[in-house]
Amino acid sequence: MVLNTRRRALGLLLAASAAVLRFPSAPRAFAAKKDCFDSKPFGPWKAQASDTLAGARINEVRFTDPKACDLRVEIQVAASFEGKLVAYGDPDKTPLPKKFLIKPENRLIVRTEDGKEAIDEPLCGNCTDIFDDKVSIVLPLACAPLFRDAKSCEMAIKLGDKEDCRFKVDCETLRPALAWASERKEALAALAAEEKCVPPEGCFITTACCEALGLDEDCFELRTLRRYRDRVLAKRPGGVADIAAYYELAPLILARLPREARQMRLRSVYARYILPAALAARLGLNTLAYQLYVRMLNELARAFAPKEGKGAGMIPRPLD
Which of 101, 102, 281, 299 is the most interior residue, by most CB within 10 Å? Predict the structure, then answer.
């Protein structure tokens, strides 16, 4: 199947580049129905739910001293109270390559509301998806009791001898956000079972690319990437929040694709990212599959994500 898919893609792309084929637009299975996705703000948190996922996130935390920290940080917490930080550096001021991140003097520090130190661990004790200017930091399990019971806590990213990247986490509003997301997940699952809403996978970037090539809704690429999402990404720390963020951002990107260049752009995205990611996932190369999709989303977000209003400023990582 993998080899057949490769041959099919090559043929389709050659035909597209020669402008000798027009691909029919595949009908959407549930075109007029509402997506099984919902979100709601709770203080600084945004709760997000689909028929299979529930979590909350802050897209950009507010540092105690914003001028003293060159990083941008977001925090994501699943309904299970597992969480992660995603830190973005400035390549010119605070680069975040692996050699820099794993230095023992770079620490993650968490304090309780009364100032007691609860966690002091290497910053990259459990880091994933390290790029030149971004790293995902899986939060230690000791954070879960604070998220579950404390009114607030303080987190700090210590770089060298400086502890400038400090911020307060509102745990009190996090809990109702996660409770709401969990309830909405159950309600959306019931609606999905009755076919009264459509899982968000039905109208996003992967599906749009496959439709542009005339592939059906049960094609190799869609089946493989959906399986990867549900069986691999959703089980990773922070994966639930990543997927929820993607559900919010991807439709906004698609809506802003220029109509006159839409089909050609989608075919290009398919060739460079969708098919390679699906092949990687099929072969069990999960990290490669994730990185390919991340690069695709970052490219599209820079070009087409809203600059203001809903979705503005979101930097994606997750996968359809």
Answer: 281
Strand order in the sheet with 162-170: 117-122, 107-112, 152-159, 162-170
Neighbours of 64 (CB within 10 A): 13
Task: Tell whether the torsion through CA atoms of 24, 30, 32 and 35 is positive or negative.
Answer: negative
Please list, in sequence order, all residues whose beta carbon lies within 8 angstroms of the beta carbon of residue 103, skipping any fewer than 6 positions away: 160
Please count the residues of the chain.
320
Instruction: With CA atoms as reference, report the closest residue to 32 among 150, 145, 198, 165.
Output: 198
Alpha helices in the chain (DSSP H): 2-18, 98-101, 143-149, 171-193, 205-212, 220-231, 239-255, 262-269, 275-282, 286-304
Question: Which pair of tokens denotes residue 285?
Answer: 């190369």
Decide which of 299 and 10 is more confident. Answer: 299
pLDDT digits (tens, 9 = 90+) for 66-97: 888 888 898 989 999 999 898 887 666 666 76
